[in-house]
Amino acid sequence: MERWEKNIKALADKNEVLADKIRQMITENQTGHVQTKELENGRKILTVARDGYVWHLNSRLDPEGAANLYAERYEIKPFYKYFIFGLSDGLAVRKFLDKCDESNAVIICEPDAAIMAEAFQQYDFEDLILDKRVWFCISEMQNEVYKVVFATVEYSYIKLLDFCILPGYDILYEKECNTFMDEVLERISYEVAHKNTFITFNRKLPQNMLFHMKHMIGQRNVAQIKRSLERKNLKGIPAIIVAAGPSLDKNIRELKKAQDKAFIFVVDAALRTAIKEGIRPDLVCTVDPKAPDRFYETVGDQEFLWCCCSWTNLYPVKKYGKKVFYYNSIVPWWDKAIKEELDYEFPAIESGGCVSAEAFQIARYLGFDTIVFVGQDLAFTGGCSHTKGIKGVLGDNDAYIKTRKLKQVTDQEGNLVYTDFQMDVYRQWFEKKIKYEKGSLRVIDATEGGAQIEGAVNLSLKETIERECTNQLEIHRILEEIPPAFDAGGQQRLYRKIKELEEIKADFGRQLEKGIALERELMEQAHRFNGREVSERLKQIAVQNDVIDKHPFVAWIMMYTREEEFEMKEDILVKEDMQIEEMVERSIRLLMSFQTKIPLFEEDVKTVITE
What pTM, to 2 d.p., does this model score? Predict the structure, then answer.
């Protein structure tokens, strides 16, 4: 096996998509502008030809010394995560990694896939690739970059992140460098919002998840829709996402012409307007844990098919949810039980932050390559916040807009229109998705108003339906005929599984008591212990804390203690000179907060599951 093949094999264990890309470039010899130059001392460095000039990606005189100088620039700190832009020959990255310990993580983004392909042929990277602290990605595979950043950035570590750029890369690949940094910064913003979401909804989230855990046993999931549609011809069948922007009022009547010629997703806030105009959604999407009940007050006796995630507001599901299609996880313990009962993966769909973005993601998951936006203003078109169908639900229109943090963006006519910062984040999210999936996805904005979404084609809804809805498919009938995901035996086994929660919770309580006892003993007796005894006690505590961290109940209890967890982790990770006694004291405080929140869980189980 050649050197590059060993490198690719190791990479495939971590990132098969990236490995396939680099393998293809090597086998098809797609590295022409990147060459290897052998120096007088026998070492090799990489060069890049651009604009008639050859750039050297390491020193021609002393590559080893240059790599050492690069690594010496940075003071490596415990728990920090380092985003390194550039790979080159890997020498500087190795020197950098030598200074790190097991608490660090290194994310390497190479902006030029040809550099990685050439480097894999010239150097042995197998040990570096297999290092658990190291992640690889390349700029042109934006979805993979997103996945790596998403997996490595979390709120507790926001203050423990640092960017490092290899020499020359900031000049050669300035645009790609800025894009990579923006990706990390955007993820940081998401984590802040995610933290605020948990704190804002607090107890509502576990309550909703407990209900959906039980309710989903007799229901369906969106993977079943995907499997049903895979056997159908979707050519000429777009997915239409009906949002609740003010422009919806001007063209929603046209949607009747798309019935059975498109997959019509209606978000919860647009449902009243759709009902008024006699539009039958194929799916009603609802996500918000506290979506106003008045969104649904005109449903009456009409039966709709609903699409929900694990924390969706309970009201519409309890009152109208005879047929619900679920997606995404509850907690790992339950997800594992679900997977064991299915002969396929339960659908995991990346969150988009708002209900129309969730519908967009579901449409892509289902296999639609043409997505149409309707009512997706993402702006206060004509000074209005939403469709007239929900007039008064959010209070007085003008008063509502005044509560928002406003900014101006360009509308579809090239004029300035007011939006708020939250809607503009969603607009940028859509633009990124469209850009990332260029070539495999067409997005048509048939909103006929609102903010311009870069990458989307602006058309009237009438023209869109005439052009795109050219095939007939009774999607609603197909969805109606999908049976519950679990047969009678599977349902009974899952109901019994829920009853195991009581013993799982009790065992977690015992593990907490054991952990607190160990830590209190160290705090109270530390002054009597020598260094070896302290080390031994710390090992015992670490083992017990690992038991607690991996316990099947911890995912539930952490929903009740998010604020305490965020504060404690921030405190410990940021305060570099914290003494052992201080760390143990904070750890005890967190474990005790777990104890105090268990009765809340018990109350919610009694109210939500056993009612």
Answer: 0.77
